[in-house]
Write a structure and sequence with these properties.
- The protein is an all-beta fold and 113 residues long.
- It is built from no helices and eleven strands.
- Strands 2, 4, 5, 6, 9, 10 and 11 form a seven-stranded mixed sheet that branches. Strands 1-3-8-7 form a four-stranded antiparallel sheet, with no helix packed on it.
- Strand 4 and strand 5 form a beta hairpin.
- The chain is globular, with a radius of gyration of 13 Å.
Amino acid sequence: QVQLVESGGGLVQAGGSLRLSCAASGRSFRWSDGNWYRQAPGKEREFVAGIRWLSGSTLYADSVKGRFNISKDNAKNTLYLQMNSLKPEDAAIYYCNVPVDYWGQGTQVTVSS
């Protein structure tokens, strides 16, 4: 059974930084793609960033390019999302995903202006 547990969310001022973590059990990130999604109130869940296990390549939503960085630590079986220069519009619940059907419970990110 795959379990994903996010942590690291919180309240931060605009321009600040947070690092989200997603600890996995039952599935190794060494052999799995990993993604971050987010969902703001009243909006659909949207893709934020992804990392491919085979190539290590990363991809980002246009709205976060240059500010967010996705990475993983295979030894710790943990996926990360470093978020810098946060904006109020980044506020959302952030979810870790292992394609296709595995999701964490989410971690809240709040950005004050």
